[in-house]
Amino acid sequence: xxxxxSLITEYALRHSTAEDSxxxxxxxxxxxxxVYPHMLSGHLQGKxxxxxxxxxxxxxxxxxxxxxxxxxxxxxxxxxxxxxLHTIDINDELTxxxxxxxxxxxxxxxxxxxxxxxREIIPGLxxxxxxxxIDGDKEQYLEYYQQxxxxxxxxxxxxxxxxxxxxxxxxxxAGRDKETAxxxxxxxxxxxxxxxxxxxxxxxxxxFILRKIx
Length: 214
Fold this sequence. Notes:
Structural class: alpha/beta
Number of strands: 7
Number of helices: 8
Mean pLDDT: 95
Largest sheet: 7 strands, mixed
Strand content: 15-25%
Radius of gyration: 17 Å
């Protein structure tokens, strides 16, 4: 099964638009200089985020979890002419790397970087968002969602990454850690929340795509 999945992923990559030079350099530097490079969105996920952003043409995007900036670049490429993306990360150690690549991508004026706890920063942004991408601390997913729902427009979209969490959210999984518990709680809440239309996609480590309807 794993071998087939790897072959399918390779096939998908070969038939998708190639990663450009900026994102490729960012991918390589992330793998060379960070402890957890798997946190990077990467080529397929990044291209899907870029496609979705182009479809929506958002004026305002909120990203929770910057890491080295790969997903922010992809999302920002679909912004409207006067659009802005706010990206938040609690760790400032990788901000310099992210800012370097935002510049190389020609997006310095389109991306605003915030450092700190997203739960404290979001209320002060005073923006109405068209699109939110949640990829921060897994224990806090439900809190991020509740904050996002206060700021996103009706008809706006929320994408939450890692909602399958390596299969550990499945019923009967033993020895759940705090991150798994946080994701499982988030998933249960979303499934019963009438304010959003939702679909959980088994893409990469699981995506929840939500549309606010009330």
